[in-house]
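Hi C.,

You asked whether I'd gotten around to modeling the 264-residue construct. I have! Everything is below, sequence then structure, no commentary in between.
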Amino acid sequence: MGNLNRSATLGLDTFEVEPIELRPNRTEDDLQTVIRAVYKQVLGNEHIMEEQRLESAEALFRNGDITVRQFVNLVAKSELYQSLFFLGSSQYRFIELNFKHLLGRTPQNQAEIDEHVRIYYEQGYAAEIDSYIDSNEYTENFGEDIVPYPRSIRTQAGVTNESFNRMFSLLRGPATSDRDNSAKLITSIAANTATPIKPPAVGNGAAYDNTGKRFRISYSVSADTARLRKFSKQEVVTDFKQMPRQVQQIHRVGGKITSITEEL
């Protein structure tokens, strides 16, 4: 797998996410790894049957006729995506999942949601999907060959701490999918209030027990702060309940979060 950067992991044991990028001279294994990653990200961790796979789109991608970005676009415009997240879902849920699946973050405010409602009503479904994938934001973060991933789990320039909390609340663990059609962020975004962080789900569908669970937050600090603390890379261990407060403190001193991992 030397041609593919595939150190991405996201599950109960870690919230650290690294991009999966398709490199030149890729092998068939590389291509299949990217295809699986696109399905997992764009379809919200939904398990799909062999007969549900988009064979025509996969063939174009494997032949080198389309890029990762174009493959993402075809999956998001497919009847499968529409059946999972558009038909039967509330409008707010559809939009918040488009942000999560295609830009790797959540909506930042009501104005962003209103803009996408307008795009859908004035230009239609395809234009709504294109508005994410054709955006400067998508290009700057993923380009043509990186699979979108939950980048809001890391500190990002211009992304608020509340966006971090919202994304964390939508990451429900590897045993669950995004098929639930009820909006999760409508109240906090509309009222511009804090989003409560709910723990992920475990394999049996029960709530992930945060009692006794501790998490290591790794972050970097500015040069001035690093001189005072002697190290530019810092870590803090906290329990789940205190995590939002620790994140706020890190941001307050100018730190940038690089990963959150569960202490074993």
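If it helps when you're writing up: Residues 102 and 148 are 6 Å apart (CA to CA).

Thanks,
B.
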